[in-house]
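Retro notes, structure queue

What went well: the backlog is down to a handful. What didn't: a couple of records were mislabeled last round, so from now on we paste the full input next to the output in the thread. Example, using Transposase IS30-like HTH domain-containing protein from Trichonephila clavipes:
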Amino acid sequence: MPGNRARRHISQLSEIERGPIIGMKTAGWSTGRVAGQVDRSERAVRNCWEQWTTREGTHARKMGSGTNRKTTRRDDRRIVRQALVNPTMTRSTIGTDLGVAIVPINIFQTPC
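Corresponding output:
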């Protein structure tokens, strides 16, 4: 289908598609040859291969990006519990009581 290729480059590679790509690249195939075989762009094949090689043989997707957590999940639960027990308490007071730095997102988006 002519329109199928245009749309496929937007979607992410499935686990089923990643396996053959890794196999062909491991066998020494060029990126262009693999891309033609699996009907994906060379960039998609290159990204898949780089992800696999940097993660020491696993082709699972990276969990996410962003800043490192400053509090543990347990700390987050304690923060929320403290805020629910005493709603008039300020976040700086809660942080002092628990010994952790608190930003508003800890209180508002953490499930109990």
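Agreed that this is the format going forward. Reviewer comment attached to the example: The CA atoms of residues 6 and 44 lie 13 Å apart.
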